[in-house]
């Protein structure tokens, strides 16, 4: 387990719990029936509990600053296993416009254990042109920019996957376009050897899949490799202002490359 900088534990039943100096909510749960509309096979069987979510987690000493900044930290735990031919995954969404900043907002993911694949594409119209499948290992970070459609995939079906993420406090999700296309532009498939392959979603047209590892965000977003994103916030409370004030960083979002 990568050291997240927080006293947070995940139990075998995917329940997220907190140490004495850490606050967090009761877990939300997403079940298989909640995501069927975005699956390759909506009737497929798999784990009933797909993932657990705890939105608004942090050190008790940071709560006032986080609220003032409109910054929110979330923790998610994904089940191992498969849903039909697919690995466990979310249904996908686009970040809605937040009232606090008047914009769709980015999200910063950090994997703690297992492996994630963050799939993202510039939109969920018929022709998004490119779709990225970014493989994220423990301690690695990936940033989803504003307005992009994205979903989270358990990249190793043999084990649970846990990650933390920075997002804006008044977050909201848009599902309509993703659901209308029954997911993003490619479906992840578990091959016979356990690796992840891809099948195109025929509801999209002419989309190129770019399957890649994470890149460094040190030059543009000033994220330090190897240091947990919560610890980076502790070291510099302004570090993730780009999450809550994305309009000030428009030059980064223009022509963004994951």
UniProtKB/TrEMBL annotation:
Source species: Lactiplantibacillus daoliensis
Protein name from the UniProt record: glucose-6-phosphate isomerase
Domain Glucose-6-phosphate isomerase prokaryote: 49-192
GO molecular function, one term: isomerase activity
Signal peptide: none
Family: Belongs to the archaeal-type GPI family.
Entry annotated with the keyword rRNA processing: no
InterPro entries the record matches: G6P_isomerase_prok, RmlC-like_jellyroll, RmlC_Cupin_sf
Enzyme class: isomerase
A Pfam match: GPI
Key words, A-Z: Gluconeogenesis, Glycolysis, Isomerase
Record-listed E.C. numbers: 5.3.1.9
Pathway: Carbohydrate degradation; glycolysis; D-glyceraldehyde 3-phosphate and glycerone phosphate from D-glucose: step 2/4
Sequence intervals crossing the membrane: none
Source taxon at top rank: Bacteria
Reaction(s) this enzyme catalyzes, per UniProt: alpha-D-glucose 6-phosphate = beta-D-fructose 6-phosphate
């Amino acid at each position: 387990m990568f050291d997240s900088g927080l006293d947070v534990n995940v139990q075998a039943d995917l329940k997220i719990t907190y140490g004495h100096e850490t606050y967090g909510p009761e877990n939300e749960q997403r079940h298989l029936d909640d995501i069927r509309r975005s699956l390759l096979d909506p009737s497929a069987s798999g784990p009933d509990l797909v993932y657990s979510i705890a939105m608004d987690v942090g050190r008790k000493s940071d709560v006032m600053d986080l609220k003032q900044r409109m910054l929110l930290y979330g923790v998610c735990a994904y089940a191992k296993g498969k849903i039909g031919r697919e690995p466990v995954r979310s249904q996908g969404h686009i970040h809605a416009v937040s009232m606090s900043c008047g914009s769709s907002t980015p999200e910063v993911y950090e994997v703690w254990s297992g492996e994630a694949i963050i799939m993202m594409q510039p939109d969920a119209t018929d022709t998004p042109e490119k779709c990225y499948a970014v493989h994220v290992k423990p301690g690695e970070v990936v940033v989803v920019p504003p307005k992009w459609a994205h979903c989270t995939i358990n990249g190793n079906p043999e084990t649970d996957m846990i990650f933390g993420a920075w997002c804006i406090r008044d977050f909201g999700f848009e599902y309509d376009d993703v659901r209308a296309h029954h997911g993003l532009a490619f479906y992840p498939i578990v091959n016979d050897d356990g690796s992840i392959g891809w099948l195109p979603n025929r509801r999209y047209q002419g989309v190129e899949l770019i399957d890649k590892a994470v890149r460094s965000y040190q030059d543009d977003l000033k994220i330090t490799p190897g240091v947990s994103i919560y610890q980076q916030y502790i070291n510099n409370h302004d570090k993730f202002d780009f999450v809550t004030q994305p309009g000030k960083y428009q030059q980064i979002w223009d022509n963004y490359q994951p």
